[in-house]
TrEMBL record:
This is Sorting and assembly machinery component 50 A. Keywords: Membrane, Transmembrane, Transmembrane beta strand. Residues 45-125 form the POTRA domain. It comes from Ilyodon furcidens (goldbreast splitfin). The keyword Transmembrane applies. The keyword Transmembrane applies. It is found in: Membrane.
Amino acid sequence: MGTVHARSLDPLPMHGPELGVQADDIEAPEIEQEPKQEVLENKDVVVQRVHIDGLGRTKEDLLSYEIAEVFRANNLIDVMRRSHEARQKLLRLGVFRKVEVVIDTSQGEDALPNGLDVTFVVTELRRLTGSYNTMVGNNEGSMVLGLKLPNVFGRAEKLTFQFSYGTKETSYGLSFFKPQPGHFERK
């Protein structure tokens, strides 16, 4: 699996006729101090930038409504909470398969000492998804085929087509959903 390196906490004996070295002759190695880490939990911070990596078809203006609250955070706990809420909103749009959040300190010339960058790493859904199933009941059977095109024009629109072929009835349907920006539960 791997190599384990271990040191004893007890010093090795450095005297005796076979070693020929006295303990006073050895220089102790200097121990480097680790860089000081600062706890930012209760300190005031400023979210300077929010990046969204992984966008393909999705328009950025659509997402500004969902991530706006992240800029209003005052401390690290608040940034984490608001970033998580923004992540949930992005997933609820129905255009992303996966959304990850990365919070880091700001870098660059205009970076503030208490500045943070929040990055949302997203993976969009496929352009076309399909489904099929069968239903049986009351001396009737049917086969249902469905196609869905999520995020058709880049602003969380959804086009669905459903075709049902049965022993007694055949039907089909086409629907188009367009959400309102900022109010995605309304379609």
